[in-house]
């Protein structure tokens, strides 16, 4: 661990912090002997997998731990002017309230829940100002308008009277940051500030946080699991694993020469754009010339899907005039931000959402005018992997029962017990021990559950697999293994796949061809080399430039490129 | 309810059963409430089953070997609780009354639970016009005063007065009508939530039929809150039965013993200083309702992790503070299961002392 600097430059010093929680299953220690320090105007990133204790550490800094937690050690927080020094852990509730906002403040993960929907954003910012000292309404309002302008909200004089729902997700996060900045604290704790945002918006928010540091001189403790974000913003990085800090170094050193084996593994697991180009080219070459002439598994022709609106209002068009096709054994990667219609397309292919207009042919069956009874016999040829492995299994059935379900439904086995031999084979195919079949879903980790989910989808050896963000709920290291497994299974079983993701780098690893969706329209389609190597559409270019890479030097270059693109567009 | 009586010998399977699982989970005051409720309820059920053995006389017995009991005899001697104005033995009437009450609960809850769960499942799963109609009908039933409905039902079924089966059925069916909407609403709300869960969608993608999805995936996950409503409704059923009896729509004393009827007949005694005819049936009603409500309310609190969590902390905080100063605390503390169980009574004491 680094030595503890106690000079004037240190704004936060965490000394041998330990936090334990009382749970239904007894005491659980979340943070164990963490020692860290943050200097003025410095960005310290704390990275780690879920459950590594990074969020608990951050919450301790603000004294926001729930009553079930017991903490020891010291968290020494210095005020911006250096006049006062407080140990947050030992503070009374009243003193803690004074420290929050003035000395340290927080930016939350989900901006839409961090803002109260029934008050205007101006009121909420003013509330923070007036909670600390007597300020007149007019002065507080003036201050709120000023801070909104400084975080990049256009027309702050007007927008100050807007309600949260009138802002977009990125703007809401700007407002949350404005609330954090308004009392000019010396330190901001940002807990996954960009995780809930799209990549292009994420880049803007990261820019804003960088300005917080440069213009306001605020130190930032950045909690994130995204190594790209770390490379983009952090000056120094602390890697946490199982409640301990395993490595602490400045960003350049950490990315160029990680010392701890865990850090090395973590960095190696991060996907980057360009990884899959070689593999995709190999696969393309291996295909016979007649392959291109084969009947595609899925053909979408001018596909249009509209969700019905409320009475008297027009419906929402989720997918608008999209055409593509998936040939046998081919993996099509579908990339887009939230609301681009990528999930809707996946659901339409599986017959979960109705097609409004145009034509969608799945395994030779026209989905426009869909009838469950006529489609049912084709369902055994379609596998579906859902985004959230936690909710895609019936919590009351064992894994073996869940995996056997498709076999029973389609009459390949009389009951789950008769299907057990095949289930064991499938579990082995996805690298799960046979004994896991007798466990219940909640007894498996996220990655294991997603592998079981793959086993269920492959039980009937489908010709087509739809994977809707199968790895976005998983940690980076687990994601890498699931992706590897997916590629292996695809080689082995040879199914065609629609792989839906918001992450370009993930899609790049697996896909033969990549399709980019934007606002329900297909803006670009081609092989990985074409789309990611030399994107033609301005949106694809922006998307690609917004994706932070886990390398501080390269990321700095990309940042300039993005700025140029934004200025041009 | 009878499964409470069996001791938890094999925690692996038994501990997963409702009520026993909650008993393991609870600490402090909550555990005290739950245990008290369970004891009272178990006593009630045992009394009802063993009434023929425990009661000194029959419910409609007017004379013993020594001749007629006599009306309004004070407690003592051959009649521990005295006799009523009609000349019945109060103790025997109270004990036999438990049987009638249990009978009504079982019939009423069985009838309403099946109808309510079925309607709720179908309505929530398929939605559409059927759902809308059923919701409106259930809301309309809510608007009825349940006692009024019960009176109407008892008149329709038995002309107001009747024998054991008729009287019990009248009470049970009227209670059923009121309770079906409750089960319907809970199951429907759960079904609507579960319907959009990924595992139901995944079953649909697999091509499972609607009935299979409803039975295998939705129903089993939707019934988690049933023990809770079940207990709360049981106590309400007893009150409705007693209310009916009190108003004179109950069961004839020759057909069965009923607490509400006895209370009704005891009204005039109260002013003339004869307290035993009203006190004991009244006490029986209060005790049973309280016992079952205690169980229900405890289950309710324990089902909510936030309510449960907060109370568990107060009792558990010392333990965690101790482990957190020991290096490698979690390893020595172990998963709380057995240790938490054994220190249960200790926590109860703590909880009472601090509250």
Automatic annotation (TrEMBL), chain A:
<dbReference type="Pfam" id="PF08352">
    <property type="entry name" value="oligo_HPY"/>
</dbReference>
<dbReference type="InterPro" id="IPR050388">
    <property type="entry name" value="ABC_Ni/Peptide_Import"/>
</dbReference>
<keyword id="KW-0547">Nucleotide-binding</keyword>
<dbReference type="GO" id="GO:0016887">
    <property type="term" value="F:ATP hydrolysis activity"/>
</dbReference>
<dbReference type="InterPro" id="IPR003439">
    <property type="entry name" value="ABC_transporter-like_ATP-bd"/>
</dbReference>
<keyword id="KW-1003">Cell membrane</keyword>
<feature type="domain" description="ABC transporter">
    <location>
        <begin position="12"/>
        <end position="267"/>
    </location>
</feature>
<dbReference type="InterPro" id="IPR027417">
    <property type="entry name" value="P-loop_NTPase"/>
</dbReference>
<dbReference type="InterPro" id="IPR013563">
    <property type="entry name" value="Oligopep_ABC_C"/>
</dbReference>
<protein>
    <submittedName>
        <fullName>Glutathione ABC transporter ATP-binding protein</fullName>
    </submittedName>
</protein>
<keyword id="KW-0813">Transport</keyword>
<keyword id="KW-0472">Membrane</keyword>
<dbReference type="GO" id="GO:0015833">
    <property type="term" value="P:peptide transport"/>
</dbReference>
<comment type="similarity">
    <text>Belongs to the ABC transporter superfamily.</text>
</comment>
<dbReference type="GO" id="GO:0005886">
    <property type="term" value="C:plasma membrane"/>
</dbReference>
<keyword id="KW-0067">ATP-binding</keyword>
<dbReference type="InterPro" id="IPR003593">
    <property type="entry name" value="AAA+_ATPase"/>
</dbReference>
<feature type="domain" description="ABC transporter">
    <location>
        <begin position="303"/>
        <end position="544"/>
    </location>
</feature>
<dbReference type="InterPro" id="IPR017871">
    <property type="entry name" value="ABC_transporter-like_CS"/>
</dbReference>
<dbReference type="Pfam" id="PF00005">
    <property type="entry name" value="ABC_tran"/>
</dbReference>
<dbReference type="GO" id="GO:0005524">
    <property type="term" value="F:ATP binding"/>
</dbReference>
From TrEMBL, chain B:
<dbReference type="GO" id="GO:0005886">
    <property type="term" value="C:plasma membrane"/>
</dbReference>
<feature type="domain" description="ABC transmembrane type-1">
    <location>
        <begin position="98"/>
        <end position="296"/>
    </location>
</feature>
<dbReference type="Pfam" id="PF00528">
    <property type="entry name" value="BPD_transp_1"/>
</dbReference>
<dbReference type="InterPro" id="IPR050366">
    <property type="entry name" value="BP-dependent_transpt_permease"/>
</dbReference>
<dbReference type="InterPro" id="IPR000515">
    <property type="entry name" value="MetI-like"/>
</dbReference>
<keyword id="KW-1003">Cell membrane</keyword>
<feature type="transmembrane region" description="Helical">
    <location>
        <begin position="226"/>
        <end position="251"/>
    </location>
</feature>
<feature type="transmembrane region" description="Helical">
    <location>
        <begin position="101"/>
        <end position="126"/>
    </location>
</feature>
<keyword id="KW-1133">Transmembrane helix</keyword>
<feature type="transmembrane region" description="Helical">
    <location>
        <begin position="33"/>
        <end position="55"/>
    </location>
</feature>
<keyword id="KW-0812">Transmembrane</keyword>
<protein>
    <submittedName>
        <fullName>ABC transporter permease</fullName>
    </submittedName>
</protein>
<feature type="region of interest" description="Disordered">
    <location>
        <begin position="335"/>
        <end position="355"/>
    </location>
</feature>
<feature type="transmembrane region" description="Helical">
    <location>
        <begin position="274"/>
        <end position="296"/>
    </location>
</feature>
<feature type="transmembrane region" description="Helical">
    <location>
        <begin position="164"/>
        <end position="184"/>
    </location>
</feature>
<dbReference type="InterPro" id="IPR025966">
    <property type="entry name" value="OppC_N"/>
</dbReference>
<keyword id="KW-0813">Transport</keyword>
<keyword id="KW-0472">Membrane</keyword>
<dbReference type="GO" id="GO:0055085">
    <property type="term" value="P:transmembrane transport"/>
</dbReference>
<comment type="similarity">
    <text>Belongs to the binding-protein-dependent transport system permease family.</text>
</comment>
<feature type="transmembrane region" description="Helical">
    <location>
        <begin position="133"/>
        <end position="158"/>
    </location>
</feature>
<dbReference type="InterPro" id="IPR035906">
    <property type="entry name" value="MetI-like_sf"/>
</dbReference>
